[in-house]
Design a protein that fits this description.
alpha/beta, Rossmann fold, N-(1-d-carboxylethyl)-l-norvaline Dehydrogenase, domain 2, four-stranded mixed beta sheet, globular, G3P_DH_NAD-dep_N, oxidoreductase activity, acting on the CH-OH group of donors, NAD or NADP as acceptor, 6-PGluconate_DH-like_C_sf
Length: about 375
């Protein structure tokens, strides 16, 4: 199987190494020449962590998207959800009717965003787009061309847009991610995304520390005190209420965190996000972002929390803790994040409730307004 990996950050390099060590033909694309400059000629990546330690040679490393994707059985995009408009325009020019795209991570309805952007650039282009709830790895680039992978997520929640294409797409993706757990539609991974449960509270309640130290602390361990943990717990309670009205089966955050390999079952059994975070070996050495201009705000609040708030409102479920984080973040950053949700959910004038949303996500018959 030929796999094109888009993005040369933490997720992109982890995916490329995982696919190559699994025996697949891997091509790596980056929009930024500087990200791949040190290994573009050799096409060699080095790695260590849970995938072992060693080096792999890719079949292509470069900045030409057509060269990277031509003939690919699966295109895996490991890019921030804030960049999906640009990638949608780029992909619209190179995909074929046989193309399959996976967003790893999905960024909460990233599949819808990408399809909207592709259709806006090239009306009529139709390819299935799958998304994972979160990145399938805990990984950090140690230096250019070298990636440390501390966790491979087991059973990552997944979905396909439109859901009607799920059987064929699921079979393909299972060749690389055999334990990925697919729901009826992308509503499933959208509501099981771990990042918006934890990151917004961690960033907002550590904003002063992030700005004054430029992120010089351990984000998950030092940044999650008992008080921060309680906000994470309350955020999760509201998420689960939204899941219930959409018939999405879920578990508490701490149990999902443990199932993904990020903490121990003993820590999860306490029901406390604080305890679970302190026991997270996979995240223990990860530093804080150096500024608030980071995906933990731009994606996890600006795309994900606002989507959850809107899903709740659509079904008559109040989300005061989630809503308060959006409001504070908007004030901190001077950005109207709720406008993004309004654009995403302008799917059709008759989108009046959960049933209409389900129909759109499964059948893809309602035309989404381009974002």
């Amino acid at each position: 199987m030929k796999i094109a990996v888009l993005g040369a950050g933490n997720g992109g390099l982890a995916t490329a190494v995982h696919a190559a060590t699994s025996g697949f033909d891997v091509r790596l694309f980056s929009r930024s020449p500087s990200r791949i400059a040190t290994f573009a000629d050799s096409r060699i990546l080095t790695y260590d962590g849970v995938l072992g330690a060693g080096r792999v040679e890719l079949s292509y490393v470069g900045t030409d998207l057509r060269d990277a994707t031509t003939g690919a059985d699966l295109i895996v995009a490991c890019v921030p959800s804030t960049e999906l408009d640009d990638y949608g325009r780029r992909l619209a020019d190179v995909v074929t009717p046989n193309s399959v795209i996976l967003l790893n991570p999905g960024g909460t309805f990233g599949s819808v965003r990408l399809r909207n952007a592709m259709h806006a650039h090239r009306p009529g282009v139709v390819v299935p787009v799958a998304e994972f709830s979160t990145l399938g790895y805990a990984a950090r680039v140690r230096e250019k061309g070298c990636v440390y992978v501390s966790n491979l997520v087991d059973g990552v929640p997944a979905g396909v847009f439109p859901g009607s294409r799920s059987p064929e797409v699921r079979e393909l993706i299972h060749r690389l991610y055999p334990t990925a757990s697919f729901g009826e539609s992308v509503l499933y991974p959208a509501l099981l995304n771990l990042n918006p449960i934890e990151h917004p509270a961690q960033v907002i309640l550590n904003a002063g520390r992030i700005e004054s130290t430029k992120g010089d602390f351990y984000f998950y361990i030092d940044g999650t005190t008992p008080a921060v943990g309680r906000v994470i717990d309350d955020t999760d309670i509201e998420r689960r209420r939204v899941c219930a009205v959409y018939d999405i089966e879920t578990s508490p955050f701490v149990d999902l965190f443990a199932a993904a390999g990020y903490t121990t079952t003993e820590a999860a059994a306490t029901g406390s996000a604080y305890v679970a975070m302190q026991a997270s070996d996979a995240n223990r050495t990860f530093r804080s972002p150096p500024s608030l201009e980071h995906r933990y705000v731009l994606e996890d609040i600006g795309h994900s929390l606002v989507t959850w708030e809107h899903l709740g409102a659509l079904a008559g479920v109040s989300t005061p803790v989630i809503s308060s984080q959006i409001t504070i973040a908007a004030s901190m950053m001077g950005t109207d994040y709720r406008a993004d949700a309004q654009a995403l959910f302008a799917l059709a004038p008759t989108l009046g409730g959960p049933d209409d949303l389900r129909e759109f996500l499964i059948n893809g018959v309602r035309q989404a307004t381009p974002i």
